[in-house]
Amino acid sequence: MTVFRSLGSCALMSRKCLLALAAFIICVSAQAADKKIVLIAGGVSHGAGEHEFRAGCLLLQQWLQSVPGISTAVYSNGWPDKANAFENASAIFIYCDGGDGHPAIRPDRLKVLGDLMAKGVGLGCAHYAVEVPKDKGGPEFLKWSGGYFETYYSVNPHWDANFTELPQHPITRGVKPFKIRDEWYYHVRFPEGMKGVTPILTAVPPDSTRGEDGTNDAHGGNPEVQKHKGEPEHVMWAIERPDGGRGFGFTGGHFHKNWGNENFRKTVLNAILWTAKIEVPANGVESSVTQDDLKQNLDDKGEKKKK
User: Fold this and answer.
1) Is 305 inside a domain boundary?
2) CATH of the domain at 86
3) pLDDT tens digits, 269-280
4) At 35, is the secondary structure helix, strand, or coil?
5) CA distances (Å), 122 to each of 125, 141, 160, 282, in order?
């Protein structure tokens, strides 16, 4: 009888051990399945309340944390200084100054991004981060994110964009038509025939925002943009790449206060999820923000520095 009781106890213990082991495996698997999103925030730029890249990325991180199955990492003041920053990343979001000082075009960083893109990692760029030199970053961003701001072709005026119609796309889930003032770049360089690219936010800019005829400034007045007066322009777009990855460009984000607009921020949050290949909720990513939240983590504009 004692032997049978011992055997029964051993069986019970084994069962408990197996259950505990199963629970541990499920827990570890769930953690391993988290989609990692890397947010890169540029250095100090512009005046107070403008180009608040770090504060904006920290807000996005806060809102993304409410979505199950996501882990996030924010790297401030430019390119990540950790060698393993992009390890197991599902998507990368860049919000920074661009042009010749774009952090992604320095030394071998385009190659680093290229290797990640070849693995299907998503890429999203916001505001000035969509601008890269035509001959260094332009061809790459055209493929990876679907478009880029090209000097002497695109323009970057401040205007009230009225988004009256939205396409059916996971990025627009739960987003209602809205109107908001920002430095909406437009007449962006896209692939021939918009191949693979879906316009997300489109509006008709005032003709005055195209610049003066004949000025041919690097950021306005060029002959190409003048040819399309009165026509709608795309200020946000998305691409499904042949490598299996996804990308998007969003030209707004100059004014930090605009993150207080629910539709403005929901569009970007949805896009980040989409690029990471995470199912966007039927009503989009829900989030809330207070005026106090918008005042947190603002840059000290007393000293501008870029990296």
Assistant:
1) no
2) 3.40.50.880
3) 999 999 999 999
4) strand
5) 10, 12, 29, 21
221 falls within a domain: yes
Within a domain: 260: yes
User: What does the pLDDT look like over 177-211, one tens digit per residue?
Assistant: 999 999 999 999 999 999 999 999 999 999 999 98
The structure's pTM equals 0.88
Domain count, the chain: 1
By residue count, the chain amounts to 307
Contact 266, 174 (CB under 8 A): yes
Supply the range of the domain harboring residue 276.
38-294
Contact 129, 123 (CB under 8 A): no
Residue 192's SS3 state is: helix
Q: What is the largest CA-CA distance in the chain?
A: 102
For the chain, what is the radius of gyration of the CA atoms?
Answer: 23
Token representation of residue 208: 């005055």
Residue 121 falls within a domain, yes or no?
yes
